[in-house]
Amino acid sequence: MIPRKMLEELRKSASEYRVVTLIGPRQAGKSTLVRHAFPDYRSVSLEDPDVRELASTDPRGFLNTYDCFVIIDEIQRVPSLLSYLQTKVDNDPIPGSFILTGSHQLELREAVGQSLAGRTALLTLLPLSSEEVTVTDVYEQIWQGMMPAVHAQKLRPRAFFRNYFQTYLERDVRKMINLKDSVQFEKFVRLTAGRAGSLVNHSSLAGDVGVSVNTIKEWLAILEASFLLFRLPPYFNNFGKRVIKSPKIYFTDTGLLCWLLGIENSDMLKRDRMRGHLFENYVVLEAWKARANWGLEPRLFFFRDSQGNEVDLLLEKERQLRGFEVKSAETFHKDFCKGLDKLMDLAGADLSSREVIYGGDTSLKLSNCDVTPVAKMDVKSFL
């Protein structure tokens, strides 16, 4: 098993809460991590039809069978079980009694919020972070992606993500919606991949796919609910009406993103027109992973105004902002700081730090920002 940064936070949460719920993409390593963290716990998966039938038809009997110190995988398959679990942990409030995992974000969050509010820690495990892999070249990391199986089992990324996506269509999408045309849905996902790191434009995407705007909104919600992509919201507090208020979209694994875009190796990636967007997706995703591994809410945003001034990533902490501009170029240029300077004019003292993360290899300390090579990026700056 590849050592995971979340291990300490997971065990700490189990010592404080009666239930720990770990959500995240399929094959991100949730089951492997919880079994490693709690080797003495019993383990059961609701993907098993017989187990799911018992949990659905006789939830009390199921919880009497698996009464304490148990790992229940894929809890979203029987969300009604959570109501019975609430009663059980209220009657017997032992910390760490149940460890739950799930891979459907929205429905599971809603069910947990209704039944286990105040009783569970909710953590998100994403694919491997740059701190958890041995590959040092950033473009190789971007192309291979960060799914544990690719690195632990030395699997071919293209074959892995082809199988991963087809399984996703059959197992997840068809369960969530009545998908009549999987070819059209796949076209939608690939076109969405071409917009990674860009503002969401439902009308443009609907026109290119050939479906309604409402369908695009529904399908984007499905991709987000199943952890294929996430939305980075804009930051516009106190900045007036000239600030863009549409979110940007990023993919949860850059390897899948490269496969969807038809990028066949890291050398091709370096020459691809999407290079800058993929580089940006990588850095923003590393920030999210760093915070998730410490059990922190994302609190991540971007800034863009109607004049085109932009800062790729903002972290809000203790009512102050940290600004990060991301550039794939290997040569630093002073224009990289333009958006950070504009944000400083607007935010003033509320902007506590400014940093450019770029594709070069020279660190600089300038009067208006720090310049950091991506290879020397310190993920602690995102905490």
Describe this structure as you would to a colleague.
By secondary structure, the chain is an alpha/beta fold. The protein has a domain at 7-124: Rossmann fold. It is built from 16 helices and 13 strands. It has helices at residues 7-16, 30-37, 49-57, 59-65, 81-91, 105-115, 138-144, 148-152, 157-176, 182-193, 202-209, 213-225, 254-261, 266-271, 275-293, 338-347; strands spanning 19-23, 42-45, 70-73, 98-102, 120-124, 229-232, 248-251, 300-304, 310-317, 320-327, 351-358, 364-365, 370-373. A six-stranded mixed sheet has the order 8-9-10-11-13-12, with helices on both faces. Strands 2-3-4-1-5 form a five-stranded parallel sheet, with helices on both faces. α5 runs parallel beside α6. It is globular, with a radius of gyration of 22 Å. The two termini are 26 Å apart.
Structural class: alpha/beta
Task: Give the CATH architecture of the domain at 7-124.
Answer: 3-Layer(aba) Sandwich
Question: Mean pLDDT score, rounded?
Answer: 93
Main sheet: strands, sense, barrel: 6 strands, mixed
CATH homologous superfamily descriptor of the domain at 7-124: P-loop containing nucleotide triphosphate hydrolases
Write down the secondary-structure element order: HEHEHHEHEHEHHHHHHEEHHHEEEHEEE
